[in-house]
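Let us practice reading a record.
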Amino acid sequence: MHPFDFLTALCLGIVSATIELDQSLDAQWIRWKETHGKQYGVVEECRRAVWQKNMKMIMQHNREYLQGKHSFLMAMNGFGDMTDEEFRHMMIGLKIQKNENGTVFKVPFPAGISLPMNRRQTPDISLGRCASGWAFSATGAIEGQIFRKYGKRVSLSVQNLLDCSQAEGNEGCNGGLMSNAFQYVRNNRGLDTEESYPYVARDGPCKYRPEYSAANVTAFQTIPRREEALLVAMKNMGSISAAIDASLDTFRFYKGGKHLLIQKNWKTTLRNSKNDTLVDILQVE
C-alpha cells in the first residue's frame, strides 16, 4: 500500500468514530493550517478531528503542568494532524538489527562510580517529516567526542548521513542505525559540516565534499544492554549515541522543561515491533 493511502485509511478510521468538532477551536485551527501550509480537500473533517483530539490533550497536559503535576510543557506543532499510528509509521526510523559492525564494549564495573554533570548540550532541532533521529544521534555523539578530545565545538552534517550512507545499510528519511552511520564515516574517512551541507529533512543525492570534512571515526563499539556497562562507558568514553522510543505524545509535542523518560529495562519495546535499546560509543580522529 502506498504511504499516502495508508495514512488516509487511518484517518478515515478516526472519522468512523466521529468526534464532535469544538467550534471554540475554529480560529486556532485556521491559524494552524496557515502556519503549516495545510490543505486537505475531502479529508479536512478527519484531519480537524485528529488535530482537535491532540490539541485538547496538549491543553489538559499544560493545565496539569501549572498544577505542578508535570515537569515540562507541550505545544501544538506540524505533527498535530497525525494520529499516533501515522506518526509512528512516518517518523520512527530506528532499524534494529542483531549483528552490529562494532565490537562489544567490556569494562569491569567499579564501585561508587559517579558522573560529572557539566555535559555539552546542543539546541533542540525539529526533524521535520523525516525519520532522521538516528543521524542526529550519530552526529551528536561524534561532535561530543571531538569536544571531549580537542575542546572544539563543531556542527556536523546530518544530511550528509541521510544522503550518503545507503551502502552501509541506512535508508535516509526512512530510517537507519547509528552504527551504520559511524561505519559510513569510517569508510568515507570524513563527514562534512552542517554549514557546508545543511539539513533539509528529505532525501537527496550524495553531495559530500572532502574539503568540508570536519570529522573522522576510527573505531566504535556497541555497549551491552546493562546499566552498569552504560555508566562505565559514559565515565570512560564520554559521549555515546543512543536511541529511545520517541513515539510518545509527550515527545511529539514537547515544548520545554525536563522530560523524564528513564526506563531500566533494556528490552523496552518500540511500538513498531523493533526491539532493544541500541547504544553505541565511538572514537574520533
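A brief commentary: Strands lie at 72-74, 103-104, 191-192, 213-215, 217-222, 240-243, 254-257, 269-270, 274-275, 278-284.
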